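From the pipeline queue, job 12 of 40. The input is one protein chain; the requested action is below.

Action: predict structure.
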Amino acid sequence: MACGLKHFDLAQEMDAEGKKWKFLGIQSKNRKEWYLTQLANMHNGWTTVALYDTLGDESSKFICDQTEVTSMACSADMIEKLCNLKKSDSDGKMRRVVNLITWESEIKKEMLDLCEAAGYKVYTFS
């Protein structure tokens, strides 16, 4: 997974606090793929940005804006939430998030259409 994330250049470099950083977001309930993504980030020297349902929409948007995250790994049940989060983003805090990496190998057509309408490119775990 680390090689795939790096190959598709799914974490953009940013400058902060006198250092260069690469962030990749994760939003999901705990599961083995969450941990595998965390390990892949560690292998690549990237920092994981974890979003939780308890944060609320405004906090999630703020975190994405502050970290300049461009990619979010998620479970399929979070795709619609992330699409709605971006579509309802009137102040542009989600503008940099352009990639969704889903851990399921198949995504329903209506979900892909929703992602396209929100401006996301979708990658599957496989």
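Job complete. The two ends are 9 Å apart (CA to CA).
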